[in-house]
Amino acid sequence: MTFDNPRRWFNFIGFFICAGLLSYAYYLQLHVGLEPCPLCIFQRIGVIIVGLLFLLAGIFSFRGRGARVWAVLLGLVALAGALTSSRHLWLQLNPSDMASCGPGLNYMVQMLPLFEVIKRVFIGTSDCGIIQWTFLGLSMPGWTLIWFVLLGGFGFWVNWRRLSPGEPVLEGA
Prior knowledge:
Elements: H1 6-32, H2 38-60, H3 65-93, H4 105-111, H5 114-123, H6 126-129, E1 134-135, E2 138-139, H7 140-160
Antiparallel strand pairs: 1-2
């Protein structure tokens, strides 16, 4: 694996940003005592997937059409994460829109079909409306939304554009 391709470096930077975000989330959970709600867990899964896509894009470092596939994948997963963060933020700002109480995520995963679990998580529970942490006036889902937009835009831009005049546009690797 050579590091002469700047796209590879940019993808690894995206991976390390995702790793840092996850490390901070686990620090808040394990050392500060902030328990994540089901929507927080879904957002973490989104960051994990975006991070893995950045890592794989950095390892394989395709050019042309192959790089554009990574761009689209990163953009789509980041968009899904941003939508999840937006829903969580909406529930925090409008707590009357969610269910007053509900079973935990572990119980739902064990007892319900996958699509029913997803539906119930997005309806939200009282846990999702509690703002436990803020920084500069934004709660955790607000910051996560910002990071999904930044990482998705960065990943799309890095992998979609041609890095050098000689780089093929339609070839795979």
